[in-house]
Amino acid sequence: METPAFLDRDRPDVPDLVVPGGVTPFYLKGRPVRGRMVHLGVLADVLLTRHDHPAAVTRLAGKALALVAALASALKFKGSFSLQIKGDGPVSMLVADCTDTGALRFYARTEEDALNALLAETSTPTDRELLGNGYLALTIDQGPDMERHQGIVEIAGDDLATMASHYFATSEQHACWLFLSCKMTDAGWRAGGLILERIAGEGGTHVVGDADADANWETATILASTLSARELLDDSLSAPELLHRLFHQEDLHVSQPRALAYGCRCSRTRLVDVLQGFSNDDLDHMAQDDGQIVMNCEFCNIDFRFPRKDILSRAEQD
Ligand SMILES: [Zn+2]
C-alpha cells in the first residue's frame, strides 16, 4: 500500500543533531573506580529550549539529561535507561531517558500556581524544593527478550546528584559519586556531569573494609570534587583534557567516547498507529471544529495535526 500523502513526512521541525564526544568513559587502573564524563554541548540548548519552562526547571531538566546520558552509556545491550521522578512539588513529574545509542529526551510537568509561588520566593530553588517529596525510579528496558529492571526509592537530599547517589546506595548497594550541572552560558544552555562508580576489585572481589581500596576511592572522589561547573560546561575544554587535569596521577585510562543525539522517537506514522487503535466514535470526539485531531508529543513539545477524515479506526476497518 502506498503511504498516504499526509503521512509522507516524518517528525517535522525536529532537529537531527548528534554530539560525537557526548559521553567519555574512563577508569583508574588498579583502583576500584570507573566513571563517565558527560558533555551535552549544543544538544542541551536544543533539547531544553523546545520547552517553555522557567530557568530553574530548565536547570533541573538539564541535570536529569546529563544523568541518564551517563547511566545509559553503561548499557551492554540495546535498550534505554529512564529516570522518572514524581513528587508533590511544583515539578510534579520529571522524565528523562536515553537509549544505548545515546538518543536523549525529557519532559517536565509543572503545577503553575505552586511554581510561581516558589519562584516568587527565590529564583534559585533547590531541586528538592522543585520536586518536593515523592519517588525516584530508574528503569532499564532492554527490549522484549530481557526482563525490565526497575528500582524505586524515596526522594532524599537537596539536589538531583544526591538523590541519584542515594538511589544507588539503597536500591543497588553501589557507591556512586556524582556531579551534575546545567547553566545558561554565553553559548546557550549547557549541561554535563561527572560520575564515579565504585567497582569490585580484581577478580570481582570486593573486600569490605579493604583499606587500600577505601583510600583509593576516597582520593578519586576528592579529586573529582575539584571540578567546577564552569570547567565542565566550557565547550573549549574536552573531556580527556578535564579528566587529565583531575586524575593524571591516578593511572587514568580514557576510553572511546560515545555520541549523544536528539532522541525523541515520535513520528507521524507512530501517532497514526495510536489513533487507529481508537473507535470511530472516539476519533470523532477527538476532532476539533476544524476537522483536525491534534496530538502533542510532550518530549518534543510539538503538535501533530491529522485530518479526522484520514484516520480509520482499526477495529472498524474491515
Ligand atoms: Zn517527540
From TrEMBL:
Name by which UniProt lists this protein: Heat shock protein Hsp33
Database matches in InterPro entries: Heat_shock_Hsp33 (IPR000397), Heat_shock_Hsp33_C (IPR016154), Heat_shock_Hsp33_N (IPR016153), Hsp33_helix_hairpin_bin_dom_sf (IPR023212)
Pfam families cross-referenced by the UniProt entry: HSP33
SUPFAM superfamilies: Hsp33 domain, HSP33 redox switch-like
MF GO annotations: protein folding chaperone; unfolded protein binding
Source taxon at top rank: Bacteria
A single GO cellular-component term on record: cytoplasm
GO BP annotations listed: protein refolding
Keyword Chaperone among UniProt keywords: yes
Transmembrane segments: none
Key words, A-Z: Chaperone, Cytoplasm, Disulfide bond, Redox-active center, Stress response, Zinc
